[in-house]
Request: fold
Amino acid sequence: MPDGHAPDHEVVVIGAGVAGIYMIKRLVDAGIDATVLEGEADLGGTWYKNRYPGARFDSESYTYGYSFSKTLLDEWHWKERFSPQPENLRYLNFVADRLDLRRHMQFDCRVLAAHFDDDTGLWRLHVSDGRTLTCRFVVMALGLLSTPTLPRIPGRASFKGPAFHTFHWPREPVSLHGKRVAVIGTGATAIQLIPVVAEQAAGLTVFQRRPNWAAPLNNSPISEAEMADIRARYDEIFAACERSPYGFVHTPDRRGFYEVSREERLALWDELYDRPGFAIWLANFLEIFSDEAANAELSEYVADRIRQRVKDPVTAEKLIPRDHGFGVQRVPMESGYFEAYNRDNVELVDISETPIECITEHGIRTRGAEGTREREFDVIVYATGFDAITGAFDHVDIRGRDGQVLRDKWRDGPSTYLGMMVHGFPNMLMPNGPQSGSASTNYPRGIEVGVDWCTNLITHMRAAGFGLAEPSAPAEAAWSAHVAEMYQTLLMRKAKSWFTGYNSNVDGHEEGRVRYFVYNGGMPKYRAVIGQVADGDYAGIAFTDASGGTLAAADAPDFNSRRRARMATP
Ligand code: NAP
Reply:
């Protein structure tokens, strides 16, 4: 590397979650001077923060763990098929300690600003502890769902009792026994939380704006014997995840939806509904993601299952989504969610009919046809989701060449090269960035792919004596157009969800204009494309050489050329 200006570190990784942990492992192994800056008091990212009761994987545990280390695979015992948050956090700590990575991490160090210095070619990071650090590469491992959002309801600050977002669930145990609890929101988080709270609280009122589809998780323990079998089959399991479009063990039913009879479809759905995990979503016919009629038939099937499980028919109908079909958003996985509404201590308030007027000192006031009504609560829980994908980037003051502000560049939605680099922001790498493959898959499976690619780029540059890497504007435009085009075949593009950038609590994201946040081509295609770019001397990326001269970027591949291959899904 050219060494006109010696940085404090060759690489700074921002974030010590699943991506940051593996990134620092790869950098340390490559002998590259690097450190991780983490804003929280410890590592773990999403599993450090989301401590709400019921939080657990929706991926099979043994497909979520890192695949790169036989030591880790041999020594860790997953105790449940879908492991709960405390165990997941223990796992990430086990990884960091077993691989001695903690000494490369600095906690309580939130990066407030990252500015590229045109004169030195270095990044200058402003850290919450007052320091300024320079580095040649900055790796953004910020998390996809790490910026929680609160509803803009009048009076929120006036409530006298405890009130928190699920992401900020207190670290000390919260007893809900004998309490009157309100939960606002019915997304994947609430759907995990509600059955657990229903069992503890004296009363639970759920405020639902739009219902979500959900299907049984069918969790179970993993015995020593089963774990031994899983260990023996890890190669096979990860190979299956690699072949799957979405990095899970579930593979689509390749029979055409219309090639089989309705009876055969119903028989498949009966079987999938009782299988663990995402089977009912991802082991289904591919047409459910793209064909309105096929999706409607499946949606009606799942609606009937809800009607069978919820005793009160009026409540059952309120829990069935009307504005989107099953599986066009990431499907929340549940354990007794629908049965929770059969309990005497649980009430469902449909706020599309009786909107929340305000939050008061003692509770929540709604306004309906019969006037206003105030319910009193001891605790209010906001399960109101995240400023997804780009939110974490927007909260850091990131400036690239010529002072260009990333937040401004991405105002109407992200544009990237391969989801890992941005034109105008040299040497800024995003192993699981917006528009990357890992944003729409079983996250660790995608994260390992992104981290490997970013690490290989850095080692390639070091070997070649290159200083800066930056994708060309045409290469970025081509990738972003490809990402947008992949949305067009999917019903998902019509859903108001975090996959399309919708969030009623964030300025500019409430109007429902689609933001192309994730790459929907599937992991096999994503791996092939990014591998092709690397093999082609990093086509689409311009480098500066040892003398500071610029080596122009070769043309990026034609990303749409193989797009006609059968569609993959989130
Ligand atoms: P979410 O899916 O975005 O759900 C947010 C919920 O809050 C929705 O029901 C939404 O209603 C409601 N809401 C938001 N603002 C509101 C307002 N102003 N007034 C009333 N209601 C409001 O967020 P999430 O449940 O946290 O899940 C996000 C993602 O996290 C999931 O899709 C999944 O990828 C991930 N996750 C994974 C797991 C796992 O199993 N591993 C668990 C939890 C979450 P509307 O639908 O009307 O907007």
About this structure: The mean pLDDT is 95. The longest strand covers residues 132-140. The pocket of NAP is lined by residues 57-58, 145, 151, 184-190, 192, 209-210, 330, 333, 383-386, 498, 504-505 (CB under 6 Å). The first helix runs from residue 18 to 29.
